[in-house]
Specification:
Layout: H1 4-59, E1 75-80, H2 90-105, E2 112-117, H3 119-127, E3 134-136, H4 145-163, E4 167-177, E5 180-189, H5 193-201, H6 216-294
């Protein structure tokens, strides 16, 4: 039977673990809100890019001709996961979703390029038999996201020049609430013709139309690059928020398990203590009766 001291040590260790889990929960909650704000902040930037595209398309309707051509079935796929553990089934879910979506496209594997964002999702893609063109680490903070987005854009431009990739798809986890998310797909290239048409036909809100001096053929791709930047940045922020949401859910389950275990250990401690006290009382009574018998 376990001694009282041993049970006490186990209670102390479990209480320390509970404190660690509470801290991780708090950090996850703070991180979620930071990444939510990052996504919200993209709204004004996206609007500015759309206004620029609107005036270019209205003055030069043919500027988008090449950007909306049907793809030649050469795909570039970017899968966002995590670098760290304790985030539940997030990586497994997004990999299954990505592979199912790619399978639906029915592309020739020889013309498909995969880029993994996060070491854990990279290993799962490799296990699924999908060779990777590269792996990008997840940023440790919001300011670092922009650098990682640029790294991905360089990779995409390399795909376009060397492999004629013209279909660009992002797979990431979209954050839904404090502790929930779902796999999401976003097609960045080719550009959605309906979206461009809506920009072209939208009425300008100001009194006078703005003008631009740069050639439309150069300005349009520059704005589209900003559009791609926004899409990839959002996928980063959403994925990081989802990772923390999944970790928060895992920590809640862990916290409940720890509380249940603490309850069991404390009950065991009290039972053992009661048995020890009862045993000591019986020894005292037995000794007293023995002395009384001798008298």
């Amino acid at each position: 039977m376990e001694s009282l001291d041993a049970i006490q040590r186990r209670i102390g260790t479990t209480e320390d673990l509970e404190s660690v889990v509470r801290t991780m929960k708090a950090l996850a909650a703070v991180n979620i809100r930071q990444y939510e704000r990052a996504v919200e902040a993209l709204g004004d930037y996206r609007r500015s890019i759309e206004l620029g595209l609107q005036i270019v398309l209205q003055e030069s309707p043919r500027a988008s001709a090449r950007a909306t051509e049907a793809p030649r079935r050469r795909g570039g796929f970017i899968v966002f996961g995590s670098d760290q553990g304790m985030c539940g089934p997030l990586n497994d879910r997004i990999v299954r979703h990505a592979l199912d979506e790619v399978r639906e496209l029915d592309l020739d594997d020889r013309h498909s390029r995969f880029l993994a964002v996060g070491g854990r999702v990279a290993s799962r893609l490799a296990e699924a038999g999908r060779p990777l063109e590269g792996e990008v680490r997840l940023p440790a903070s919001i300011p670092a996201i922009a650098n990682q987005v640029r790294e991905i854009l360089f990779a995409v431009e390399d795909w376009q020049s060397r492999h004629q990739v013209d279909l660009l798809v992002l797979f990431y986890s979209r954050h839904l609430s404090r502790s929930s998310y779902r796999p999401a797909t976003e097609h960045l290239l080719p550009l959605d013709e309906r979206w461009l048409r809506s920009l072209r036909e939208r009425e300008w809100e100001g009194r006078g139309l703005p003008s631009f001096s740069m050639e439309a053929g150069a300005l349009f791709p520059a704005l589209i690059r900003r559009h791609l930047f926004i899409g990839i940045y959002r996928a980063f922020a959403e994925s990081l928020a989802s990772e923390n949401a999944s970790r928060l859910a895992s920590m809640r389950r862990a916290e409940q398990n720890i509380r249940d275990r603490l309850g069991e250990l404390r009950q065991q401690y009290h039972q053992q203590r009661q048995l020890a006290v009862t045993s000591e009382l019986l020894d005292i009574v037995s000794a007293f009766e023995a002395l009384d018998t001798e008298d």
